[in-house]
Structure to design on (102 residues):
């Protein structure tokens, strides 16, 4: 892979993916159940954005994603697990030492 295909990991990009996951999970609960898969995909992207620079935060995002996934096992889209998005996002932002939350 060429160097032009590699970019630095990004805390703000992780937060962007968490925000999109929140929107998609809300859509899943409001009649578009397949959107939960897209939400989990964005959560996985958020993990990937910080795994090398904030591994504890990446693991926390993963744990929340697995809870969403596990909650689907009963077949009820309406009862899908919903992470505390504010707490999750704030922790990632603080872990990345973003000045807007310091």
């Amino acid at each position: 892979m060429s160097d032009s295909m590699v970019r630095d990991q990004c805390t703000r990009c992780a937060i962007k993916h968490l925000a999109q996951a929140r929107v998609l999970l809300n859509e899943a609960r409001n009649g578009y159940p397949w959107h939960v898969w897209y939400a989990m995909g964005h959560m996985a992207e958020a993990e990937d954005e910080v795994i090398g620079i904030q591994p504890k935060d990446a693991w926390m995002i993963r744990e929340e994603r697995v809870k969403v996934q596990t909650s689907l096992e009963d077949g009820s889209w309406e009862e899908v697990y919903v992470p505390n998005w504010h707490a999750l996002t704030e922790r990632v932002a603080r872990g990345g030492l973003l000045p807007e939350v310091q």
